[in-house]
Each structure stands twice: as structure tokens, then as C-alpha cells.
Amino acid sequence: MRGMKKLLVYLKGYGKESVFAPLFKLLEAFFELLVPLVMANIIDRGIADNDTGYIIRMGLCLVLLAVVGMAASITAQFFAAKAATGFSAKLREALFAHIQGMDFTNIDRAGTATMITRMTSDINQVQNGVNMVLRLFLRSPIIVFGAMIMAFTIDVKCALVFVAAIPLMSLVVVGITFITIPLYKKVQAGLDRVLGTTRENLTGVRVIRAFHREAQEEAQFEEENGALVRMQLFAGRISACMNPVTYVIVNSAIAVLLYTGALQVDTGILTRGEVVAIVNYMSQILVELVKLANLIITITKALACADRVAGVFEIRNEKPDEKEDQNENRGRAGVTPGTAEPAEPFLEFRNVSLTYAGAGAKSLDNISFTVGRGETVGIIGGTGSGKSSLVNLIPGFYRASEGAVFLEGENVGEMDEERLRSRVGVVPQKAVLFQGTVRSNLEWGKPDATEEEMWQAVKLAQAEEVVKGKEGGLDAEIAQNGSNFSGGQRQRLTIARALVRRPEILILDDSASALDYATEAKLRTALGTLENTTTFIVSQRASGIRHADKIIVLDDGEIAGMGKHEELLARCAVYQEIYYSQYPEERAQTGTVPRRGGAQG
Fold first, then answer.
1. Does the reported pTM lie above 0.85?
2. pLDDT one-digit tens code per residue, 412-435
3. 461 shares a domain with 390
4. Does residue 494 contact residue 523 with C-beta atoms inside 8 Å?
5. What percent of the chain has pLDDT over 90?
6. Which of 51, 119, 342, 432 would you label with 89, given CA atoms 20 to 30 Å apart?
7. What backbone phi and psi angles, to 5 degrees, belong to 575?
């Protein structure tokens, strides 16, 4: 319930629709309550007196009540649908914007599958709940209590049956509601798991087929899907009890009414038409309680889903402690008070450690180094050594657990994200292209890029022949995930996307792995022509970083060596092991045997 209260702010702007929808439903309910009275008059006066003209007049009155009631109902449903769809559109937009603003740590913690479920299925359930509430939440109680009041105006003794039946049915409805709310929360959580498995299988379908794991993955999916079905069936069986139980209560009440009414008619206290009117009122209560039961089931699902959606909005990016930041700034570069502060390095890692959420050990431990503007920095190390983790700290994708990263003396954790990332161009490990055209993908790097700037970036990225080879050039179509391009072509286009903005810092995170050595060499030469661009090259190949101004060798999250290629080859065992594993002929010529634990630089 608390979650729904937080989300109702997105109904702002639909106040008129939110008021008119229930008002027109109340108008419909008012006309519906008049129908049994008209029927009673037709029976007692028209049929009893054989007055055909009166029957026709009352019949036309019934038609008029039906037409006006239908018009009121259609109008109410229009306003309710407009408010509900507008509410869900604003909510979905706000949720998407919030997720876009979440840092990588929170996205990893929440999970992609959960985010997709809450963006789609959960918001749809909330939308249905809002729609049904606006249409029926006031109408059904008004019909129920209005019918009871109308019954009292006809005969008090018969109306006492209503007094007994209505609380009993309300108890059934409320009891089932409280039982099913936590069950529907479990159902949505089960849907998260099924969606997560589905997404993982679709993403890794080639790997599954390569290792012939189709049968095992199908078995896992069937197990999780079966668990979801069992939860849904259990919740559905309990919810399904609502209708038959209320039918039993109402039909028992109608039987009592018929018996009591018959006695009243025999004694002349009631007319036949009045008995029919009372039975009709009880039937109206039955119909409305069935609607109310279904409404409560829908509301139960909506409330459970609203709590889940509100839970995403409660996820906030962590802000660094102000006191720690002040201490960090106060001790910058070891400068003591009263002394002249030396020129700040362009980029500085100071005692940086990183621990991912839920991880037991540090992925990076006590990383410290400085980089000058325009330098090229190579980062190399074994698989899982922390290369990608290190470069992801520069644009602020993750926040350092200890220490800080400084860009021109300013802590990147405190910088405005837009200002920071406008200075950084990132080419991730996995080349991702979006459906559209080459031009639209390049515009991600710089929305107002000219055609000349785009072609210049394409040439630098060694992708000119790729673009010119496609029909349309820059306007060539790109399928979803760039599936109509090869791996090397996708990598070159993602590099061009980063280069078109001419960033101050360019991060190439193993982004040339699909390129042949000749193309990689041309790319490296082209990147060397960039002025005032500090380049970080993460690579598994020693050839890709051997000409860098500074090479950082990582081993299990720690710096194992730092320097130029020749220096590291002479004194860093980890670098020697990587290099000579790729160039064994040089090891044979020099006779060098790499030793762990030697001087690391």
C-alpha cells in the first residue's frame, strides 16, 4: 500500500479524469438502482390492472434508464482508461529515467531481469489496478449499500436478510485478499527468475549450442517455469474461492428472501412486485460483489507490483562521505599546509581499491599512479586481473571503495556525471550497436556532429571501407545489436562512435580483440595522431600496448609492474610471462625464463 501511495504522484495532470470517471460510474449506479422499482410498478400496476399503456410507458422508461446508464458507463470508462494509461506512461518514463541514472553497482545488484519485469509486467498490473479502481471502487459499494437501503424502504423484515448477508460476504472478500497479497508478490518474484533464465539463454544461445547444453537448459527452464505455475495455481485457487463462496451466500439469502416474501405476500403486507424488487436488489448485490471480488484480486496484484516498482525508485546511488572527501582533498599529493602545491597531474589514482557489491574480496587493491595529458597508457594482465574494473572507475561507472580518482585535481566521484562523461570516450569490451543507421549510432558520441567529423572518426577507426562498402554509406541500416556486421566491423564502428566526440580521455577496453594485427597496427598509428587525448588501451595482446608511454601490469587486482615495454621486459616477471607466451621465439633467442616474485618495478 505504501508503494502505491508513492506512485500516485504520477496521476498528477489527470485530476479531471480521476474525478469524472467515478462520478459517471455513480450516475450509472443511480439509474441501475431505479430499475427494480420500475419493474415493481410494472408488475403491481401494469400487469395486475392489465394496463397495456402503463406497461409500454414503463418499458420505455426502462429503455431510457438503460441508454443513459450505458452512456454514463462509456464516459466513465473513457476517463478511467485515459487516466490509467497516462499514469502508466509517466510512471514508465520516470522509472526508465531513474534506471538510466543508477550507477553500475546498483544495476548489478538489482539485476537486469528484475528491471525489465518491473518496467513491463509490474507497471501493466499497476495500470490495470488504477483503471479498475476508478471504474468500480466507488460504484460497487454504492450499489451494495444503495440496494440495501432501497430494500429497507420496501420492507424492513426482508431487508434484515441484507444486513446478515453483506457483512458475511465482506468478511470472505477481505480474508481472501489478505491471504493472496503475499502470494502474488511471490508470483512476481518467480516471474523475475523465469525472465532472467530466458534472457540468459537468448543472450548465450550460441554458447549453449556449441556445448550441446540444450537439454540441460530446457530442464532448468521447465523447473523454474513449473515452480512459477505452481505458485500461480495456488494463488489462483485461493482467489477462485471468492466467487463460489459469495454465490452460495447470496443465493442462500435469495432463498430466504423468497420464503419470507411469500409469507408477506400471503398476509398482504407486500405485493408481488415488491418481492421481485427486493430479489432484484439482492441479485444486484450478487453481481456487484462478484465484480468487487475481481476488483480486489486486481488491486491485490497491483499493490504487490506497486511495492516492487516503488522499490526501484528507493535505490539511490551512494554519495561519498563529506568528511572523507575533505580529508582526501586536504592531503592531496602529500602537500603539507603552508607549502606551494605542485602542478596537479591530469589523472591520478590514489590508493584506490574496489570491491563489487556482494563480492567477498577486492577486485582492485591499493592502486596508485598518475597520467599526464596526452599520454597513452597500456593496461595488461591475466584474465580477471582487474583491467576493466580499473578503467571503469575513470568515467565513474563504479565508485572506488577506498581511495579516489582525480581528474585535474577534482574527485571524479564528486563531479557532475554529464560534465565528466562528456570528456570521456569509452569503447567497451562488447561492441554494442543500436538499431538504426551508422549515422544515428555515431550521433550517440556527438549529437551535432557534422558529416565531415563523422567521416574523420570513421577513418581514424579504420572503418572507412566498412561504411563505404554498405549501401547508403553513413545512412546504411544497422540491425538490432549490429547483427548485420561482423565482430571486427562492429568494433571499428564503436571506436568511431567514441572518437567522433574527440574526447579528452579515450578508453579502449580490449576493443580490438576481433581485429587482425595489421588493422590493429593501423588503428594504433591513427590514434597516435590525436593531440591532447589521453588514451587507455586495455589489451590481452602485448603488441597492442608495447609502444605505450606507460604500461600498467595488473595481477590479481594489484599493480605488478609499471613502466615502458623495455623496462618491464627486463624486471617484471608477470609481464615477461605474458609477453613470452605470445612471442616464444624471442624467449628462445634470449634464453629468458620468467620468474614470479622477482623485482616488480
1. no
2. 888 888 888 888 998 888 888 898
3. no
4. no
5. 21
6. 432
7. -65, -40
Which are the contacts of 469, defined by CB distance < 8 A and separation ≥ 6? none
Comparing 377 with 342, the larger pLDDT belongs to 377
Tens of pLDDT along 465-481?
889 888 888 899 998 88
Angle in degrees, CA 57, 60, 64, rounded to 5: 135
Look up residue 430 and give its three cell numbers: 562488447
CB atoms within 10 A of CB 102: 17
Whether residues 152 and 269 share a domain: the answer is yes
**Burial state string for 587-596 with b = 16 or more CB within 10 A and e = fewer than 16:** beeeeeebee
- The number of beta carbons lying within 10 Å of the beta carbon of residue 321 is 10
Q: Angle between the 487-499 and 451-460 helix axes, to the nearest 10 degrees?
A: 130
Domain contains 336: no
Q: Which residues pair with 376 in a beta bridge?
A: 535
Helices H / strands E in the chain, number of each: 23, 12
Looking at the fold, whether 149 and 282 belong to one and the same domain comes out as yes
**In terms of residue numbers, what domain contains 394?**
324-329+344-423+503-601
Give the model's confidence band at 511: pLDDT under 50 very low, under 70 low, under 90 confident, else very high: confident
- 293, with CB counted inside 10 A (0-12, 13-18, 19+), is buried
At 330, the amino acid letter reads R
Looking at residue 546, what is its pLDDT? Answer: 86
- In whole angstroms, give the CA distance from residue 432 to residue 493: 9
- Cβ within 8 Å of residue 93, ≥6 positions away: none
Stretch (H or E) spanning 368 = strand 364-371
465 sits in the region (left: phi over 0; alpha: psi -120 to 50; else beta) called alpha
Q: Terminus-to-terminus CA distance in the chain, angstroms?
A: 60
pLDDT in tens, 525-583: 888 888 888 999 998 888 888 888 999 999 988 999 999 999 998 889 999 998 888 88
- Using the structure block, give the residue that is written with the C-alpha cell 565513474: 396
Q: Which of 450, 471, 502 is the last residue of a domain?
A: 502
| Phi, psi at 332, each rounded to 5° | -60, 125
Residue with cell 460483489: 289
Same structural domain, 128 and 212: yes
CA distance 514 to 517: 10
Beta strand 410-411 with 364-371 is: unpaired
Residue 192 has pLDDT above 80, yes or no: no
Q: Which residue has the cell 477462485?
A: 240
Pairwise CA distance, residues 36 & 58, whole Å: 12
Tell me which of 502, 522, 541 is where a domain ends. Answer: 502
